[in-house]
Amino acid sequence: MTDKYIGYAEYFATGEGLTKFVASGTKEEIMNSAEPFMSRCLTYFSIHEIRDALEDVQKDEECIKNHKNINYEAIRVAYFLRGHAPIVAQTIHENNGYYSFSYKFYINFS
Question: Number of structural domains, the chain?
Answer without folding.
Answer: 1
